[in-house]
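hey can u check if this looks right to u? its 492 residues, i copy pasted from the old doc so theres a chance i mangled smth
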Amino acid sequence: MWSGKSSDAQQQQNSDSDAAAIAADVFGHTAYLDGLASKININAALTEMQTELSNIPVTEKSAMVEAQRMKPQLLDDEHVLGFLWAENFSAPAAAKRLVRYWKDRYKLFGPDKFCLPMTLKGALKDDSLALSRGYVQLLPETDTSGRAVVYIDWSSHEPTVGYSEESMHRVFWYMAHVAAEDLNVIQRGVVMLIYPQEARLDQFDHSLWNSIADYCKNSFPIRWRSTHIVHPNRFFSIIHPVFMSTLPKDVQDRVVVHSGTKMKVLANLLRYCLPWDRIPSEIGGCVDLDFEKWLSDRMMKEDQALFQKPSGSSSSSVLGSAPQQEGGAASASASGAIGLLSQTRMQPSSVPDRTTSLDATDNTQNGPGSFLRNISQLSSAGQSDGTMSFAQGSNETAGGKSDGKESVAKGPKFLVKSGRKSDPRMDRAVQAKLDDPSLSLLDALRQGGFEFPALGDPGTPQYAVVDSDNVKITQRKNQLLRRIRTARKKAG
């Protein structure tokens, strides 16, 4: 495990320290995090981070420098602080993680979208099909240790319907950023809960999961703590040893497999801060997931956050500049979101999420405070408008109506429902398919009342066909499959 250069005593000390950190991450022990929170000096850490970043060659941090040139408000102190927490305030490691994050973000989202906001109508505007699968979901509550829980249902992964592996990568990125809106989660981190029982062997994507493991370990501005695999099926015993052998040892040690009866698995999960009232009903819990509603509510929340932003402020930071020349206790009085992070001592329910709270922060109290304002050595001329275009003109809902009927966003083409009421056409399509299993998905959708004007047009491939609401036929089929699966589970 270790190189031969250290003494035996040092090796044992390091080994014990690693074992303690792994146990804390797996079981949700937070004493060391509470101790860390009481000792940190926010401004000193940011200053050290800036020094570390300045020592990294420009060629290695070119994506980060370009992001600062295009949208300096993306690289404020709050953004940087997430990477410090992810690396337990080791400035050298956090600097490398931040640079890697922007390098990966540029590669994954491309030059046209990597600086767009991480929202459904922003950077995710072209990934509606992968999102709609419900393959990756953020559970409504954290675990009892205050960590976000990302739930993955392997049986929902169907790349044959038309989305790419990179699109699903972007979905993971989006969920990580949604989780990080909770300031407490930035400190506590995230755990994964994977349910492979109903999945086929071909639905396990080795390449996808190698990439996700790499992002979690080296890129995301939030600390991955552990992964719990629940109710594995027969093929899992074939792929699990092969896949685990490709992962680093410290990642392998943070993966726990739970098998046996439902009661046994529930009892085991409880030991890892995952009680039955916070996990999905599919694995024996009592949380009924409605991903369509989650997407609808999420889009509304992001729209509201956009309109609530102060229109007259040109500040690119949520906390203002920190007077570094004064030092001492005075310099530790960070404001805004950073102040919250240093004062809350990580009470899971006491910290607001950033989508609703940070946009209302007074950005004018201390003037601009962008963390990376001196790093890129680039002029910020022409970047002072402080505004950002969402979906570049495609963020209007169809018809702009709010009469209780469904509306669909023209950009990302998500179904936007009014309240909890489901689409009656989809209800009829589900019933038609349940009544006659031999019915094709397309015929069931038609019987439900969906219309596809371009269907049959020789110049339009079927994957490009949209219905009268401008929603792709592949997405409608995907929704129908998911609704049918949910209905059968409830009936069984």
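Residues 1-7, 311-352, 354-420 have pLDDT under 50 and may be disordered.
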